[in-house]
Q: What sequence folds into this?
């Protein structure tokens, strides 16, 4: 009688009652490649998202998107969601792609070149290691991905904030390392804005480039616009794009900017069959 009364009570509340045994299991959205970097002299992790059909068709090859700040607790999960969503057949924003999240160890070291500004050195005491990081990206990380996955050869780089600074440095100094560049809220104030001075007008018109920024203050917004204008001085290049998100700030521009970039950069690419 007591159980019956309890059942009636819970049903009256509209609450679920005994549902029987529940089985729990780990939920995975990808896999991790861990390797020892000889260039950086430390262990590194690459987080990998594979398209749903990757295991089914062993002959199919995929573009690769490299994401800086790609640790699990950083941007990997939500950018993986955008890659999955954008490649749905009913969305058809970008081809099915492999996402490689480059996990961080010391981003202030890895994403910055040596600065001559005393304030930069004081606030970022470990800075100045971008040269070694780029070398590891070229000689260790990309070859590791190419050996372990079926890649098509087309590559994209995503970087935000200090990652945007690094993506810009790679664009300027190693232009052909990637086919597409998505640069969001780049910290181009580093070293007294010296990187902007290295960019010849229209230097990278052969690449697909997206520059995005939110309402992030006069300096950040000016630098992002100057980067775009240097890359496309006449505002006529169809492969260089700019996005301004006045409703967002430095902390939340990345997600919508990447979504917008996917639509613009891959708009002319037919989906992979």
A:
């Amino acid at each position: 009688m007591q159980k019956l009364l309890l059942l009636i009570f819970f049903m009256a509340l509209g609450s679920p009652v005994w549902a029987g045994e529940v089985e729990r299991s780990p939920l995975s959205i990808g896999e991790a490649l861990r390797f020892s970097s000889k260039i950086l002299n430390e262990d590194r992790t690459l987080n990998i998202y594979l398209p749903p059909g990757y295991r089914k068709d062993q002959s199919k090859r995929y573009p690769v998107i490299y994401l800086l700040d790609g640790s699990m607790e950083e941007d990997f999960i939500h950018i993986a969601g955008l890659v999955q969503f954008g490649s749905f057949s009913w969305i058809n924003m970008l081809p099915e792609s492999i996402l490689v999240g480059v996990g961080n160890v010391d981003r202030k070291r890895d994403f910055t070149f040596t600065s001559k500004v005393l304030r930069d050195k004081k606030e970022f005491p470990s800075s100045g290691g971008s040269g070694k990081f780029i070398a590891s990206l070229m000689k260790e990380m990309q070859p590791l991905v190419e050996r372990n996955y079926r890649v098509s050869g087309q590559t994209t780089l995503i970087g935000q904030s200090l990652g945007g600074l690094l993506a810009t440095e790679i664009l300027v100094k190693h232009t052909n390392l990637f086919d597409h560049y998505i640069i969001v809220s780049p910290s181009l104030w580093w070293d007294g804005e010296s990187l902007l001075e290295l960019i010849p007008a229209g230097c990278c018109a052969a690449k697909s480039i997206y520059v995005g920024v939110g309402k992030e203050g006069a300096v950040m917004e000016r630098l992002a616009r100057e980067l775009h204008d240097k890359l496309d001085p006449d505002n006529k290049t169809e492969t260089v794009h700019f996005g301004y998100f006045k409703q967002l700030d430095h902390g939340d521009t990345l997600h919508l900017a990447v979504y917008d970039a996917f639509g613009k950069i891959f708009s002319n690419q037919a989906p992979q069959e």
Summary: The longest strand covers residues 151-160. The longest helix spans residues 130-148.
